[in-house]
Amino acid sequence: MWVRRLQALWCNHDGSALVEGAVLVPLLIVVLFGVYEFSWFFYQQHLASTGVRDAARYLARVNVPCDQDSPVWASQQAYAKNLATTGSIAGGSPRVKGWTTAMVTLRCHSIDNPIAPTGLSAYRGGPVIHVITVASSFTDPSLGFFSILGLPPPTISVLHSERVIGPG
């Protein structure tokens, strides 16, 4: 008699959809929120990348590039940091929550452009080429799903270099 009851219970399919749903729905929710969190991260990284690219392009077109003693260069750097973080040289709300101008680093380095024995230089331009590099690294303002899984929030690191071409 017990054997028949066990066989009947084993072969009974009533409620199997409910059990399958109870097992799969939490997994599907985790996958859904994971996809949403990663897409949010990539969107924030794209905004930061666009910001540093805009700042580097702005500095590549200023009148007095790479003159550390010039007050004009200092103000242009402040404008570029505002442009990177807010999208406007005047400042405003940040592109990415928590991203400030203090997190943006600007560097201008020079590359010698000697003339070869053939009479040609390695790069077009004068004897010195200036390159602007804008970089930033900060913690992503995630939506919090990483912490549910016990993971630390990811760090966004972006960098863009642009050759100084002067005003145009």
Question: What's the helix and strand layout?
Answer:
Layout: H1 2-11, H2 16-60, H3 71-86, E1 104-112, E2 128-139, H4 145-148, E3 155-163
Antiparallel strand pairs: 1-2, 2-3
Helix pairs in contact: 2-3
Write up this protein.
- The longest helix is centred in the N-terminal third of the chain and has 45 residues.
- The protein is elongated, with a radius of gyration of 28 Å.
- The mean pLDDT is 88.
- It has four helices and three strands; from the N terminus they run H-H-H-E-E-H-E.
- A three-stranded antiparallel sheet has the order 1-2-3, with helices on one face.
- The protein has one domain.
- Helices cover 45% and strands 18% of the residues.
- The chain has 168 residues and is α+β, with helices and mostly antiparallel strands.
Contiguous runs where pLDDT drops below 50 for at least 5 residues: none
Number of domains: 1
The chain-level structural class is: alpha+beta
- Helix-strand sequence: HHHEEHE
Fraction in beta strands: 15-25%
Strands across the major sheet, in which order? 1-2-3
Helix content: 40-55%
Number of strands: 3
Any idea what the radius of gyration is? 28 Å
Counting copies of identical and different chains, the oligomeric state is single chain
